[in-house]
Amino acid sequence: MRFLLTSARRLGLPRRAVSQILLTQLAIAAGVAVLATGLFLAPLSSQLDDQAMRRALAIAQSAAADPALASGLLDSAPVPDSPVQAAAERIRRATGAEYVVVVDLNGIRRSHPSPDRIGKPVSTDPGDALAGRDVMEIDEGTLGRSARGKVPLLAADGEIVGAVSVGIAYDSVRDRLVGAIPGLLAYAGGALAAGALAAYLLSRRIQRQTRDLAFSDISALLTEREAMLHSIREGVIALDRDGRIRLVNDEAARLLGLPTHSADALAGRALDDVLGAGRTTDVLSGRVTGRDLLTVQGARVLVANRMPTEDGGAVATLRDRTELEHLARELDSTRGLIEALRAQDHEHANRLHTLLGLLELGLHEEAADFVTEVAGVHRSTAEQVTEKVRDPLLAALLVGKGAVAAERGVSLRLADRTSLPDSLIDPGGLVTITGNLVDNALDAAAASAAPWVEVELRAEGRSALLHVRDSGPGIPAGRGEEIFTEGWSTKQPSAHRERGLGLALVRRLAERQGGAVRAGGTADGGAEFSVVLPEALR
């Protein structure tokens, strides 16, 4: 095929793929028809030769079986008007043979289509027939090339007295062969026409599928596609109608946590087998529909979009939103701190006004007591946290969250059993988990009559345990697992980011450290989230 296409280009034939394919298929069909004709004619010639020799032998055997022929040979001389000549000519005319020659034991003709050759020796050796053997052959004689049959001629007592040689003109065999060629060519032409029609229909189908492009254009498109897919900074994954992977570019493999060096080996594998069950698989396979769908894969927050293709498959694109999500959460934290500082500024201004009033009224002892009380409250709060939570990052987080909770009118307290040493292997991960759970608890508790949030952090061996309880409305019935799904939230979307990722990230971070997170309820009807992180302490 490649040789034919290369030859077509060298000969200046059409560049369009469909034209080259059509010409190639027509050439192949014609070649097959010629080859089939040749393969059929080759054994046909041999078969016709064999049939002619067998017919000549059968005529010779029939002639030799006539007892009058043997008696005539013994009783008459080799002359043109002998009974042997008359019998032989009668047989020749009846059978259509070229000649029927009877010879005696000396090889002298006793009959011949040309009477002037009677009485003369035969031109071919009759030895095998005179020895009692039947002979079939294609040979050259005085009458030209012929298919011959020779048999011994027996007398009434069974003694060999001569031989009978019958010839079938080779021209008649060739005429039969030539006569068979038109019919054979008709069949070959019909097969060629059917092949040409099939080639045309196939080429039309290929024309629609290739958009009438030349092979060079298709090759260029494939090269450009490969370069584009592996150079863009957006993940692309293509699926067929059965959910099997067609291609995965390098960025998609990186975002999905797949080995980039084996991306080509993923082709043909089912998406469920490669990624496993989860929201990412549901989004990419189309079981979850929508635009700019958020999903968490490993430690990454991804934005996925899926576009169906005409053949029932789909192409999905993936964008990394992890850094943007981190920035959004930092913005949330910053806004929370700003609100806490604003509240502290108002509170500080009120206290300064109170202190100024006490001093102007000359109540110096009362002013001193007021300053001591205010400073003691802040000091005792910070000391209470640092005494139970020795890790500085977690302690700072809880002190900051306490200020935010106070501004929102929520009581944030540490449980009596809280006790966490300063020996965390990954304090940043626990800070993220705790911050997300406390933020959710503050949102849930803010609307209750007596809002409160309780945090319990403690160590059991090398495991770290975290419990966050609130006075909110609790977890909806039957939603204990659904709340950890990306995009699930009971709150209104924020102006700068989508909701429903906090709990999903909490679970991912916990599972990445070999832990687990569980949601339940409190005795007062609120919610309780429990996180266990094994091997979290040194």
Automatic annotation (TrEMBL):
Is the keyword Transferase assigned to this protein? yes
Classify the protein's membrane topology as the record does: Multi-pass membrane protein
Asked if the record carries the keyword Membrane, the reply is yes
Q: Name one GO molecular function term.
A: kinase activity
Domain called PAS: residue spans: 228-258
Query: Pfam family of this protein, just one?
Result: sCache_3_2
Give the transmembrane region(s).
21-44, 184-202
**Record-linked PANTHER family:** SENSOR HISTIDINE KINASE DCUS, TWO-COMPONENT HISTIDINE KINASE
Q: What is this protein called?
A: histidine kinase
Species for this entry: Streptomyces cirratus
